[in-house]
Amino acid sequence: MKKKYIDILLIAVAVLLNACSSGDSGAQPDPTDKPVKKEIQVMTYASQFAETALSRRAAPTGFSEYTPDKTTNMGIYMLLSENPATDWASPEEEKIIYNNNKWHAYFDVQPGKTYTVYGYMPKTGDMSSTLTKSTADAATATLTITGIKPMTTDDICIITGVKNADEGLAEGQFSWSWPIPSNEEENYKIHVLMDHLYAAALFRMKIDAEYASLRTIKLKTMTLRTECKSVNATISLTHNTTGASPISGVVFDPSGSSEDFLVFNSDAGTALDKDTPVDINACFAPTLSANLTMITTYDVYDRKGDLIRQNCTATNKLPNLEAVRGQRVQLNMTVNPSYLYVLSDPDLDNPTIQIDN
């Protein structure tokens, strides 16, 4: 029977613990006295947004290796699981930096021990977190993230540790923790899964064919207005070894007054086409599904390509998106002015944007 193992790639880190002292200049500490910081490379796997349902937790069907399209960071906890009463007394969030095409950080780790891994990404702006272990049930914990933007272009995810096998991630091998084996090398590679915390919307915008024959509209910005400024998320985590998601519940707590969040920007403007839509993605707290307003700015050009209207605006209340965590909804939109102007009359400000689906 082929032995399964955790893929551990060790990267040497030289750590000196009080190498010298005034009383004993040549004394070296016993390396087994306490853990030392090791460099840990974090291997990340994420799922695609589901169109109608939450993502399945099985690879390769549900998850694939994740490479961010921009530099981003994660906040993560890596804690001993041997004795939660003491090991979890005051867990501290560590910031993991994505650099040189990999995530890596330093943690105090001991070979042969079992560690629990939780976290979130991206860690941006005012976001921070706390992690508490349930005193009534050793299999549950609560991760609280504060200061999240209610609307963002970032795909905010919850991170949990996952076992790895030589044949790849597989159903039934998901876990919060695993033992780091003891060997001669002192470097570590851990694997994590990232589950979507927010819902997503794909805005597909084009222009009415009749209007396009007379005018060109170049989209410059799209802003989404929410009825809150910040969101806190409380995530209930329940350990299992069946491959099911450990996220057993999420509660969103919005706060603050309305705020505008930029989700698309083009200084020169992006021309809307009558056939091929411009695609814009945004992620949002599912509790905001019924309370979003879209504000766009655009320039208008005549048939000769001359700019005739600059920085026009359009404000449209969006319908209830009815989205849940991990789900993406699609809105097909057509810029469709209520009437067309002739000769030198100014073009309509605040045109109707028709929701086609």
What can you tell me about this protein's structure?
With 357 residues, the chain is an all-beta fold. Helices cover 2% and strands 47% of the residues. It is built from two helices and 22 strands. It has helices at residues 84-87, 209-212, and strands at residues 36-46, 64-65, 73-80, 94-99, 102-109, 114-121, 128-133, 140-148, 151-152, 157-162, 177-179, 188-196, 199-207, 216-226, 230-238, 247-255, 259-271, 278-284, 293-301, 307-317, 328-335, 353-355. A hairpin with a 2-residue loop joins strand 4 and strand 5. It is elongated.
What are the key terms here?
357 residues, mainly beta, 2 helices, 47% strand
Compose a concise summary of this entry.
This protein is mainly beta and 357 residues long. Helix content is 2%, strand content 47%.
Instruction: Supply the number of helical segments.
Output: 2
**How much beta, percentage-wise?**
over 45%
Mean pLDDT: 77
Helix and strand sequence? EEEHEEEEEEEEEEHEEEEEEEEE
Shape: elongated
The total beta strand count reads 22
Computed Rg: 25 Å
Give the termini separation. 54 Å
Q: Percent range for helical residues?
A: under 10%
What kind of sheet is the major sheet?
7 strands, mixed, barrel
